[in-house]
Model the fold of this input.
Amino acid sequence: MRRIDALAVAGALVVVVTIVLAAAAPALAPADPIRNSLLERLSPPTWGREHPLGTDTLGRDVASRMLHGARVSLVVGFSAVLLAGVVGVGLGLVSGWYRGWIDDLLMRVGDVQLAFPVLVLAVGVLAVLGASLLNLIVVLGVTGWITYARIVRGEVLTLRERDFVAAARALGASDAWIVARHLLPNVLPPITVVATFSVARTIIAEASLSFLGLGIPAPEPSWGAMLDEGRNYITTGWWLALFPGLAILLLVLGINLVGDWLRDVLDPRLERGL
Done:
């Protein structure tokens, strides 16, 4: 257990440091992340100098682009998960509580959506709507609602038969009151765990779409777009792909470690060894 706690602390530290660096990017960035300087193109890392992580093919400072790219990953990751969670939890509560044709309709819509791979669906939608930060958040958020809806629906189907719900009904509580005050608080723990892991998956999805050229438009920095550029210069400019790749790896790993810890804390069955 101590090992898990230590790993969770390390993961949380990585996430917190990334958030702080992203929030302070305008103050910490050593240069303008979109300023070109062809005379300095493909300069290698020079620790402690003007370009500590080197420059890219257009002479832009890699460290500055890394800091500003972190903002894109975090904003997309958390915003898309928040959107998916709000939509999914709301529809899951409605589906599980009222059942009947509403339940059948929502679950069948979810089944149809699950028939399409998320990235393929996102690529198609972004190709039609155009690549932008808002479109990226909306697409990744809308494609993730079904996971939350199914989990919440299953929890509600169990909770609605419990004694405390029957007691609330006997006292004359309305459906909205029961759902908001009795069911919603009980479904939040598993949803919190799912949301934590979903942030990591969404960050990878954003990097993948940016790698394919469907992220935020150039010249704004994005870790996925930096990887796409760096893959063509592995031998002559190894730092172009190494640093954004490490950043994605560490951030996603840190979020997953926090998610593992939350799962252990919020699931009492694990403490009993069930």
Remarks:
- DSSP finds twelve helices and no strands in the chain.
- The mean pLDDT is 86.
- The longest helix spans residues 62-98.
- Residues 83 and 187 are 17 Å apart (CA to CA).
